[in-house]
Amino acid sequence: MSKPLVIGLIGFGNIGSGVVRTLAERADLIRSRLPRLIVLKTIADKDTVTKRNAPYRPEQLVGDAMTLINDPEIDAVIELVGGLEPARTFVERALRAGKHVVTANKALLAVHGPELMALAEEKNVGLLFEASVGGGIPIIRALQQGLCANELTSVQGILNGTCNYILTRMGEREMPFSQALEEAKSHGYAEPDPTYDIEGYDTAHKIAILASLAFGMDIRFKDVFTQGITQLEPADIQAAHEMGYTIKLLGIAKRAAAGAAAEVRVHPTLIPLDSPLGKVNGVFNGVLVDGRPIGTTMYYGRGAGADATSSAVISDLMALAADESRFSRWRDGRLRVQPGAKAIKPMDALETHYYIRFTMADRPGAMATIGHALADQGVSIRSMIQHQSDDSGKRPATISIVTHLAKEKGIQAAIASVEGHEMSAAKAFVLRVEE
Q1: 3, 41, 46, 206: which is the annotated catalytic residue?
Q2: How many domains does the chain have?
């Protein structure tokens, strides 16, 4: 058998422990499918005292990541620290040292990815990141290899299990957002501080990575329009269901054709109840990819957790171990990200359908006020539901509408007009619709 692929691991938390455990538990299967062994030599973590639920020798665990980065025997480094620093420093130094890097760090890639990819190419080593998006769903390799003969026009999906669980429970039980969030925390699906998930930042990091690969553009986290789910009310989900929709937090990247400006956005979205993504519930993720000539393909599975992430990390290690001679950037990088090259469509140029919840005084003329404001912007109503709080007319009424195709700029102008009218009782709430 050929010389082993010797690896080092930085970050020995829940995910890192899962990788070490899976490497041990699946050792025979992994060995049977490769021309050479994968050997874990060193693990680095700030905490060298706490016992992990994984098989390792005490002498393998060190407190300084540079120990393994500077070790000439180590061929590949797994980075599972998360965040921007010191992760960026570790990854950059490992690449400069001529080592392959496998990472699950979506934030790092969404902010610094193109520079790190360029550095890996310069040093003729691999930067592999299957685990950064979709957990155990092999969406990165599908884009880079399986779909590389296609002109990709759209990637959109449910990319955060925490938000999907919350929205699923709000729909099933008509729970308020706060109650569904607390339930998610009790099951371990949400962090004690869930801001990163519920404000859409996690999804924005992931769609930036997918958009960059799909379109060959230098798309970063800062380029993504981002709106979270915290303002959703059970009334919105109820109204959506009555009109044949469900609400999901989607990451959306679209372009009309190669070279066209890309829409890259994250927000709660109305989608048909019977659509493929509309049926993805609980903590699961789903991604739809459109391209020519393939048409639409869908990818579904668990989006997070030690097992799903370990599966993706080890698939990258196996790809490296299968390459006995030298790393070929053409094998895992047929979709090239061009640093600095991008064209992003501004949000006010977006054209889609819209859901708007108006809160109005419950008296004659409320609907006419809304209708006139929309008509002035050339927006027509496709469907409408009105909920009255009582029969007295003393409390506001909720009017929920879905529009025909309209421009974002016109929708925002119409909303501003309604909110400026004396019959408006609260700020309007707007969501976008994907048919």
Answers
A1: 206
A2: 3
